[in-house]
Write a structure and sequence with these properties.
Length: 83
C-alpha cells in the first residue's frame, strides 16, 4: 500500500435526541450500500493508493451501482424503469 493508511468508522446520529449511536434497522442496509458505493468511488480516485486496490474499488463501485439500480423503488418488473 502506498501513502496513507485509511481507517473509518460508521456511526449514526439519532434524529430525535441528537446522540450518536451504532444501532441500525434492516431498511438502513440500502443506505449503507449506497455509502459503501460512494466510499469505494472516492477512495478509488485517490492517487495515494496502489493501482490494484484502486482497480478493485472501481469495480466494486460499478457493481454496487448495478445492484442499487436493480433494487431501486423506481424499478418495475422486467427491468422497466418507472418515469
Amino acid at each position: 500500500m502506498i501513502g496513507f493508511r485509511y481507517r473509518f468508522n460508521i456511526t449514526r446520529l439519532n434524529n430525535r435526541n441528537g446522540r450518536v449511536d451504532q444501532w441500525f434497522a434492516p431498511a438502513d442496509l440500502f443506505a449503507m450500500v449506497k455509502l459503501t458505493r460512494v466510499l469505494a468511488a472516492e477512495l478509488a480516485d485517490d492517487g495515494c493508493m496502489d493501482q490494484e486496490l484502486r482497480s478493485r474499488l472501481v469495480l466494486l463501485a460499478a457493481t454496487l451501482d448495478e445492484a442499487i439500480a436493480e433494487v431501486s423503488p423506481a424499478r418495475k418488473r422486467h427491468g422497466a424503469i418507472e418515469q
